[in-house]
Amino acid sequence: MAFLKGLLKNYRLIILIVSLAVGCWGMYKKPAFIERFALGFEDIKFPVRSSLGMAPEPDKRLVIVTVDEPSVNKLGRWVWPRDVIAKMFSNLSQADIVGLDIVFSEPSDEKSDELLADSIINSGNIILGFFFRGEATEETTEQAIDYLENCAYLNYDIQGKYVGVKEFKFAEVNIPIIAESGLTCASFSTEPDVDGLYRNYPLAYIHKGYIFPPLAVQMMRYGLDKDAELVLNEKGVKSFKIDKVNLKNSSYFRLNYYDNVEYVSAYKVINGEIPPSFFKDKMVIVGVTEVGIYDMRPTPVDAVTPGVSLHYAALSNLLNNEFLTTSDAYDYASIVVLMLVILAISYLRKQHYRLMLYFGSFTLTAGVSYAMFIFGNHWQHEFYTMAPAILMTATLESFAFFTVERKAKEVKKAFASYVSPELVEEIQKDPDKLKLGGEERFITIMFSDIRGFTTLSEKLSATELTSMLNKIHDPMTKVVLSNKGMLDKYIGDAMMALFNTPLDLPDHADMAVKTALELIRTLHEINGRFTEAGLPNIDVGVGVNSGPAVCGNMGSTVRFEYTAIGDSVNIASRLEGLCKAYKTRIVVSEYTLAHCKMQFLTRKLDSVRVKGKKEPVAIYEVMENTPENKAIADRFHEGLDMYFARNFEGALAVFEEMEAAGDATSSVFTERCREYIKEPPESDWDGTYTMKTK
Fold first, then answer.
1. Quick check: 238 and 250 in contact, CB under 8 A?
2. What is the CA radius of gyration of the chain?
3. Fewer Cβ atoms within 10 A, N terminus or C terminus of the chain?
4. What angle do CA 460, 463, 469 make, to 5 degrees?
5. pLDDT (tens digit, 9 = 90+) per residue, 9-60?
6. Number of helices and strands (H, E) in the chain?
């Protein structure tokens, strides 16, 4: 038990240690099943940079001459006749260097092969291409190895028992007559990452004991007339130097892709539309971009990227020394820093503050990573920084939920049985609200009561009565809550609801009147179900008033409940009682209607002085907005105007007409008019009617 208590006490530290261990392990191992997600997550930096228009510009000396769709349409399917290709090479003779992302591994006729070989020799600037195979049916011939030997690295140092550079057993090379004609040759093989996308460019491959450079490196060597220096060990390339480039501890470098790549159609080169002088002092890569020939590679910037573009990007990266650098030390440090920040945030008491700061921390981490990429060509592995931190955050919050916040749920469960869910949330946010006392607020109060419930209770058993009451209160309570009201209490068959407390509700008067109308609609649905079940129908009366009231927890220190008290509450209760007197279902005070912004159909019922109050209050009936009800309201107002003007005979005629048409409220005024005709009111009568009962 003591161990468990200690564990619970130090759970944050334990979660931090475990999360750090997981994060550092992932960063070190980069397991394939995680790397697939990590690579895609980190690749988002490329489209973000492009959308901001901040992608780097490639070296202006570089051009791709492409076997594209227009070229194939004009000159026929690839591979073209040797004389056509020879003409293209002749027109590229002014270029500094020409690298081929193509291989002539199949002979044509002898004359055509000689013609092409002569063109390559005469150009004097062509680096032939070849590629490696993992599997093949034929070994590389001794003659081919002799040609390849002249293409290998010369200046390298091996430090260790073996070299950790990838080795291929097979190679697809040029036919002898072509192989002898080139300036040199280079491999154009590249490899995808675990998710199939091409992101990295090799510095060296091994074949038959020789170490070969890729096409981009070979073009730089011969284009700048500078050799590369390699140091190799068991892990691969320990260092690679050429000109200003100095790469360390990797056999590959991550490609820094470009948005603007200069392509020139091979057809335009062959037919002279692009003059040979255009290529003077340029470094040209010849490759295929026609989709039908399928030399396409999926990359982070495009799912269909021509393979020749990889060599273009690599060569420009080398010439401009703008590699995407990375730092293991920075990646590990970012994991530690972010997790310590998450740990500090977890001590905050308010959950919404914690969530905001968690989100801010992750956003800042991503923002820093993107900024370093865009402005400094630094490639941070932010997935391995953020993923374990997110795991840590989720674990901390889950632990808090199931342990610390479990008590809050218990409080909520206990209080929810007799107060509204809104009030429970308020209590959870500020437990001090449970103190006795309250605050004065301007609120709207609604009372509803089931008509004839006492008589109904005499006809049903206790079980039937309880079941029936639940079937009434349940849907009506839902109406109150759906309109943002607070169910204050049930008083037997009556219900009291408050609007604009304990939470602010700017349109509280509208919501209360809307609730009253919906309660009457719900009443019809309830009666429909009761009729089907063989139960007696019910009727309700609803009173609504607005005004200041003291709201808060009332009672004793042992037992208290949230409610509202004051004259406005008493008036609302009296108005509910007036529903029976005026034979209507909804009675609303002038104070409530004065604060309504919604347009409701109403008719003024009277100006009354309720029991226990000296000041009169104008009362209204709220009606469903239909043409029939509007006609009733208009005609009733005609009679009421006569009534207040002491024209009781005229008013009586109107009310009798309406009573005969089925308006029960008019019967109240026919009786009054007859009384006033027999015994007129005092000369100072202002139309106010004093209620003698509640």
1. no
2. 44
3. N
4. 75
5. 678 899 999 999 999 999 999 999 899 999 999 999 999 999 999 999 999 9
6. 25, 26
Dihedral sign for Cα 157, 161, 166, 170, please.
positive
Which one, of 501, 509, 514, 481, lies nearest residue 586 by Cα?
514
Determine contact, residues 483/511, Cβ cutoff 8 Å. Answer: yes
Residues of the chain with pLDDT under 70: 1-9, 403-437, 454-455, 555-560, 612, 692-694
Q: In 125-235, where do the E strands start and end?
A: 126-133, 156-158, 170-172, 184-187, 200-202, 205-207, 210-212, 229-233
Residue 138 tokens read as 């034929």
Q: Which residues of 372-396 are buried (b: 16+ CB within 10 A; e: fewer)?
A: bbbeebbbbbbbbbbbbbebbbebb
Residue 172, SS3? strand
In this structure, are strands 236-242 and 245-248 parallel, antiparallel, or unpaired?
antiparallel
- Residue 686 pLDDT: 87
3-state secondary structure of 205: strand
The token pair that represents 609 in the structure block = 């002085």
Measured between alpha carbons, how far is 553 from 560 in angstroms, rounded to an integer? 6
What's phi and psi for 254, nearest 5 deg? -75, 130
Give the torsion sign (CA, 172, 175, 180, 182). negative
- Predicted confidence (pLDDT) per residue in 669-679, tens digit: 999 999 999 99
Closest to 691 measured CA to CA, from 585, 619, 597, 600: 619
pTM of the predicted protein model: 0.62
Q: How far is CA 692 from CA 106, 609, 616, 672, in A?
A: 115, 9, 13, 15
446 vs 45: CA distance, rounded Å: 58
Residue 2 phi/psi, 5-degree rounding, is: -60, -40
Q: Are 230 and 239 in contact (CB under 8 A)?
A: yes
Measure the CA–CA gap between 619 and 593, rounded to whole angstroms: 9
Helix (H, G, I), strand (E, B) or coil at 576: helix
- Cα separation, 603 vs 407, in Å, equals 51
Q: What is the DSSP string of 391-448?
A: HHHHHHHHHIIIIITHHHHHHHHHHTTTS-HHHHHHHHH-GGGGSBEEEEEEEEEEEE
> Tell me, what's the pLDDT at 404?
58
* 307 neighbors 201 (Cβ within 8 angstroms): no
Closest to 592 in 3D by CA, of 515, 508, 516, 665: 508
What is the separation of C-alpha 47 from the centre of its chain, rounded to a whole number of angstroms?
A: 18
Q: Which two tokens stand for residue 77?
A: 């399917």
Q: What CA–CA distance (Å, rounded) separates 637 from 620?
A: 11
Cross-strand bridge partners of residue 283: 62, 97
DSSP string, 378-390: B---HHHHHHHHH
Q: How many CB atoms are located within 10 Å of the residue 257 CB?
A: 25
Secondary structure of the chain: what % helix, strand, coil (to 5)?
Answer: 50, 20, 30
Name the E strands within 72-169: 97-100, 126-133, 156-158
How many whole angstroms separate alpha carbon 397 and alpha carbon 407? 15
* Residue of 588, 585, 582, 607 whose CA lies nearest to 665: 582
Q: What residue type is assigned to position 393 of the chain?
A: T
Strand-pair partners of 552:
563
At 326, which helix (H) or strand (E)? none
Give the DSSP H/E element, type plus range, for residue 244: none
- What pLDDT is recorded for position 418? 41
